[in-house]
Amino acid sequence: MVTDIILENVDFSYGKKTVLKDFSLSIQGDGFTALLGANGAGKSTTFNLISGILTPDSGKVMIGGVDAHDRTQRHTANMGFVFQENTLDLELSVQQNMRYFAGLYGLKNYQERSEALLKEFGLWAQRADKAASLNGGHRRRLEIVRAMLPNPEILILDEPTSGLDPTIRQEISNQVHALAKQGVNVVWITHLLDEIEEHDQVILLEKGQIKEQGTFAELGGAQGIKSKFVAKEELLQL
Ligand SMILES: Nc1ncnc2c1ncn2[C@@H]1O[C@H](COP(=O)(O)OP(=O)(O)OP(=O)(O)O)[C@@H](O)[C@H]1O
């Protein structure tokens, strides 16, 4: 399947507040792309347009060559989404959350994949625990593992490590980078430069506009990127 994520001439406003105006974005193929921007830059709005939770006032959102309006379950199953807020059922165990999701997607014979993912993300020992009893890092990992259960070729995460301590953030970032190396088209939304690696594609978003695009190295690494922002101290934490 084609995994390109394309927004074409998108306008989007919340009531009178315009967030995106004639906004275009193209993320092609596999690998790891960081969509980087300060608070209020429009990252979550872009995420919600890609996920289909929001619809543009005008313009097009195309994922894998399919217009967001024309998606079927097959297209949706090819996209994994990890939202900023908790979407787990906290009363269910880790495995029950996986089973419930498998049911929603009509997945058969998912157990082997579920076990492999839980092991890969260090959640196997917690498989019988209620999601409510997991720490923050394990909850985020479960969100990622569950999103990966239908074996999507695209994985989009909205500030997935928000509120976690640096060591756990780094571990989760490494695990998701490993998925990208396995061929998943990963889009990682963040305002934290230390989650980005040298060869990652970076899209710098500022006030609803793409300010720069290139690999982390091409943009001059953390220092180069910081220098491109106007109010850098407020905008990016290192
Ligand atoms: N439901 C809403 N109603 C009105 N304005 C909103 C709404 N959601 C977001 N906004 C505004 O739209 C702008 C873009 O918000 P968005 O959440 O997309 O940015 P962001 O880059 O994801 O920021 P953050 O890192 O804080 O999540 C901000 O000015 C925000 O205040």
From TrEMBL:
Q: Residues in domain ABC transporter?
A: 5-232
Q: Does the keyword Membrane apply?
A: no
Q: Which domain of life is it from?
A: Bacteria
Q: Which UniProt keywords apply?
A: ATP-binding, Nodulation, Nucleotide-binding, Transport
Alphabetical list of InterPro entries matching this protein? AAA+_ATPase (IPR003593), ABC_transporter-like_ATP-bd (IPR003439), ABC_transporter_ATP-binding (IPR050763), P-loop_NTPase (IPR027417)
Name a Pfam family for this protein: ABC_tran
Molecular function terms in GO for this entry?
ATP binding; ATP hydrolysis activity
* CDD domains in the record: ABC_DR_subfamily_A
Give the residue spans that cross the bilayer.
none
PROSITE patterns of this UniProt entry?
ABC_TRANSPORTER_2
Carries keyword Nucleotide-binding?
A: yes
* Similarity remark: Belongs to the ABC transporter superfamily.
Q: What is this protein called?
A: ABC transporter ATP-binding protein
Give the originating organism: Leucothrix pacifica
